[in-house]
Model the fold of this input.
Amino acid sequence: MSNDNRPLTGLRVLDFTHVLAGPFATRILADMGADVVKINSAQRAVGTQDPKHPYYLMWNRNKRALALNLTTDEGKTVARELCLQADVVIDNFSAGVLDRWGIGYQAIHEHNPQAIYVQMSGMGDGGPWSKFVTYAPTIHALAGLTHTTGVSGREDIGIGFSYNDHQAGLHGAVAVLAALEQRNRTGIGHRVDISQFEVGVNFLGPSLLDYFANGATARPVGNDLPYDAAAPHGCYPCKGGNPNPDKIPGLGERWIAIACMTDTQWSALKTVMNHPQWAAHTELDSVKGRMAHKQTLEQQLSSWTQDQDAYELMARCQAAGVPAGVVQDGADLLERDPQLAGAEFARPMDDVHPELGPTWIDALPIHFTKTPCNEYHRVRAIGEDNAAILQDWLNMSAAEVAKNQTDGVLE
Done:
């Protein structure tokens, strides 16, 4: 969006993505300098495609906005011309949508062999489930993430946020970078098919190996480690917390995570606790003994932590070499976390939104020494950059842009 030397400056990305996974992938590319052209239309600007929706605001910064009515033949023609100029074309529709519009990889590759196509569909291209409509809860369930991240006896508990969408977005960005490296060597762009379902399954590697090797089926274990022995290893209550005037269960409570992975760390934790009598039993000196008395250990430790300030206890534990971390909420992260404050991770965006006012940045957590990626532009309204994009990419005149606007192509 400006002349700079960020790592991906000069890369042209045509972005047909929506909701979270795809837009997150292209946001990463845009943050690193790529000219990402976000395709949207008045017809599709509902729900998460509405530029005022929190999802849209979160995942579509640093992109230019082109309104394109793809229900018209003229709109499809403009899309084709853009694809012929693109370095990267990316979508996360169900498999085959770009092909039906006449702008899929096969249709474009013959005329733009350098174009890289990345398709991030829910189930991937091919197979009996390829046409499934997928969202985070269904992907988590199908991929086994819901089952393995729950609590024993509660099969309805799983990951409550779009974990797999974020992971798929990261895979999408990496796929683009890998395809660019391949193109640098061969001069040819490739089609990359990403199954968000397979991304989720990929995170269950140890569980799959356990089944293949031992016939053991993974079970929900809550905060316990499924394949290692460690105790204490969990979250423990502390005093204080944030206000909870509505008395919502769990809200406002203060907890700390403590993980003693070695006997040395357990010994250090005993020192932090000032060597209470209950922790002096010699059978607790080994992980085997602590696991054998795990329930009693957890109860005693919880009884002690509930009288401790979580942040003070974290500092004391870390100083003693005991892995510990306060269970932070959003307010903690933005208002009291010194690590994030020092990194300026959350900051107001200088480019103020004309309708919504000030918005905030969650900064790119990749820090380039020579080519810093610290330029952030607000989310653009639908079609706000029509003239500039079509001039830059297609050398389209102002008169042609105006005619397409009048004809309903650019809306």
